[in-house]
From TrEMBL:
The keyword Signal applies. Residues 1-21 form the signal peptide. It comes from Hydrogenophaga palleronii. Residues 29-128 form the DUF2147 domain. This is Uncharacterized protein (DUF2147 family). Keywords: Signal. InterPro entries: DUF2147.
Length: 140
């Protein structure tokens, strides 16, 4: 009986883990910042199709001097161990590039920016959105 219970437990645990498995395409799509002030589109890079790029496609400040529409904020070269790695992330607030890692799971995307080693970094959490807010619109 104990063996049967163990087998059922292992089977349930395996199913739960496979249901949460993520892949490289999970980061693709539109993602709203935690402050709801920008939407970033993650997709394969036009100039490097095997890499993942993040570009600001909606900004609450569109059309003003603070407009960041069209700014590439991430470029990551490879997917490994549940994350996009080997690239950079750019913070338009301070104008600096950092090493970066991007992880997506369900409706949350985590962008980790760091100098040196990942553990010493800072994480931004974004939420998936189905479409861009109506206004203000970024110029194409």
């Amino acid at each position: 009986m104990k063996t049967l219970i163990r087998l059922i437990t292992v089977a349930c645990w395996s199913l739960a883990m496979s249901a949460q498995a993520v892949g490289p395409d999970d980061a693709n799509g539109l993602w709203m910042t935690a402050e709801s002030d920008a939407v970033i589109r993650f997709a394969p890079c036009a100039d490097l199709p095997a890499a993942l790029c993040g570009t600001i496609v909606w900004d609450k400040d569109a059309g003003t001097p603070a407009d960041t529409c069209g700014v590439r904020i991430a470029q990551l070269g490879r997917y490994d161990k549940d994350a996009w790695r080997d690239g950079w992330v750019y913070d338009p607030r301070d104008g600096k590039k950092y090493k970066g890692v991007v992880r997506a799971q369900a409706d949350e995307l985590r962008i980790r920016a760091f100098v040196g080693v990942e553990i010493l970094g800072q994480t931004e959490r974004l939420k998936r959105v189905a479409s861009l807010p109506a206004a203000p619109a970024c110029k194409s």
